[in-house]
Write a structure and sequence with these properties.
- The structure is a homodimer.
- The first copy, chain A, contains 10 helices and 14 strands.
- Chain A is of the alpha+beta class.
- The longest helix of chain A is centred in the first third of the chain and has 19 residues, at about 85-105.
- Chain A is globular and about 55 Å long.
- At the A-B interface, helix 4, strand 4, strand 8, strand 9 and helix 7 of A face strand 4, strand 8, strand 9, helix 7 and helix 8 of B.
Chain lengths: ~350, ~350
């Protein structure tokens, strides 16, 4: 296992994407999102994906120099055509547009067509919350979550992400797949051979399995509730933007590397100042958060959404981002000099 | 057990609320929502609550003749002061306002202050969807859901409700508490003495219990995910509208009957026509719904959110709404002539 320095990583990964022709601003967002997401401990959506993204840029799945087109369709709605940009860039541009328009209208929704994988959704919702907005971010994803009562998957892990400004610290942020666990956790156990907990995944017949290699679909979070929430996210993304939906989406890893996936996203920015004093809103939220954190715990401390990520972020900033050997091999294929990013 | 006729029920309950001085329009909404919710099979939020509502009107918790005040605070935001109306009326007025404004702006959010229990959230979201809008409805509720890792409850069952128009049938509707099950299901087993499934509820120490009478808090849906979603709903409702939040709320059943609870709601209406052709949107959704319904099932049919309620509605329209003996006793205290609403 190596420990990588986040600043070294930024410059190495930045150089790598630029060398592959990705525009400066696309590079900025994909690298910033990946490194910050890894610092937050969400390894499934952080730097572990850089070999995939580099290949996607090289093969043409991701447009190196996209031209975004915004259609303002109402005083609180816009449609954005992302021109097959890297999703991190498309999402940041869409959220910035939503925040700017919500300053005028109080609220703005942006549906995004023709994007690609956008990494972790917190990146966009927190971006709005840092500007004193409530931010919401959604995306569709390839079909991996078993439809309730069915044998097979239908929707993707279609995440729901929400962020709100907190005085004196980074925003409150809930960023959750609508499946019980992420597919990446199953993939990790496929590597290690460790058995799955009985409620994570199902085999090809739709029967719960503890054998990682037999897993073909994920359990929705809270049963039919997670399935329903995943459907809501799908509607907001692909059915509004006109993109491919659910099983129409090409799989992320097993499709031809040049195939454009036309992922859809949906963003909302809402200005709390339109409902009352924003200072009061933030102070009440802070008091609520502190009250929850002070509750007596069972086996573990009581936290609010995003607290574990904030702690990991502080620790990894100092100690480095851990990368396990199997992942490291994949890193070295793309960047043989990755060792230069190791912590001193 | 009795079977009650929905039309007879409407007229009996209407007469009862009017006799208690409730305005005609408040009566219309509370009765329509309760009867339709019971027809849909959601007994916890239907006519079973009428004795409670009648007492709340009689005691003054619910304002018999509320005067709503709307503050238009942006081209896509409004704040509504509900003047302690029955929540079913307040919510319908708020959603109608949101839909009307979303026709202009594409999207409108309405936060509602000083309301009361609004029954089942589907009533409002479906109201928007019947007008070709996407509808969202949220409310806070008294603290019954255990905070993740804590011993005690913090947020209420704070539901999330979403509806979208479907050609040729009633709208698609997801209406879910952010707890795994509703408190009412625990209360039902307190009556029958039947043990609880091990994942429903916790005792006063925060330990999972199967003894219904020892249950003091509910399990959030999907663990920390349901807890986080409940927090999101709380922010949208009470922190935006300025009302009491989480444990500040008076409990529904054990507070003095005249105490006004100042429940907060949040509604969104979004016009899909601002993103593309609305006919195409609806047809794609219909195809998606039909594809899911046609999937091979495990032990049960595969359905979309709201399908079980649609079936129960069709059955109960003909066969009547069943009311069990223990509930019937409570009905007869308030309306000794309830027998006149029995199916012929």
């Amino acid at each position: 296992m190596w420990l990588l320095d986040h600043e070294q990583l930024r410059s190495r990964l930045g150089g790598l994407f630029k060398a592959n022709g990705l525009s400066a601003v696309s590079t900025l967002h994909v690298v910033d999102s990946m490194v910050e997401t890894s610092l937050r401990g969400v390894d499934s959506h952080g730097i572990n994906l850089f070999p995939h993204y580099v290949r996607s840029v090289a093969a043409g799945r991701i447009n190196r120099d996209p031209l975004f087109r915004f259609q303002v369709t109402g005083s609180a709605t816009s449609l954005m055509h992302a021109d097959h940009a890297v999703g991190h860039h498309a999402g940041a541009a869409a959220m910035d547009h939503a925040v700017e328009r919500a300053r005028d209208s109080g609220l703005c929704a942006v549906a995004v067509a023709d994007s690609s994988h956008f990494g972790a959704a917190w990146y966009f919702a927190v971006r709005a919350a840092r500007q004193d907005m409530l931010g919401f971010a959604f995306t569709n994803a390839d079909a991996l979550v078993k439809a309730h009562n069915a044998r097979e998957p239908f929707f993707g892990t279609n995440p729901i992400c929400f962020a709100a400004p907190l005085p004196g610290e980074e925003p409150l942020c809930l960023d959750m797949a609508t499946s019980l666990v992420a597919w990446n956790k199953v993939r990790e156990r496929q590597r290690t051979g460790e058995p799955l907990p009985p409620d994570w995944a199902f085999d090809a017949q739709g029967v719960a399995t503890t054998v990682a290699n037999e897993a073909r679909s994920l359990n929705p979070a809270g049963g039919y509730k997670g399935f329903g929430l995943g459907m809501m996210v799908e509607l907001l993304c692909s059915l509004l933007s006109g993109g491919p939906a659910a099983r129409e989406l090409l799989p992320m890893f097993t499709s031809p590397p040049e195939a454009q996936r036309r992922i859809s996203h949906f963003f909302l920015a809402l200005d709390p100042a339109r409902f009352g004093d924003v200072g009061t809103f933030k102070q009440r939220l802070k008091t609520m958060v502190e009250t929850i954190r002070a509750m007596q715990g069972m086996d573990a401390e009581v936290m609010v959404p995003g607290d574990p990520e904030k702690r990991t972020w502080s620790r990894r900033r100092v100690q480095g981002i851990p990368v396990h050997d199997a992942m490291l091999e994949q890193f070295l294929v793309v960047d043989p000099d990755m060792g230069k990013a190791r912590k001193a």
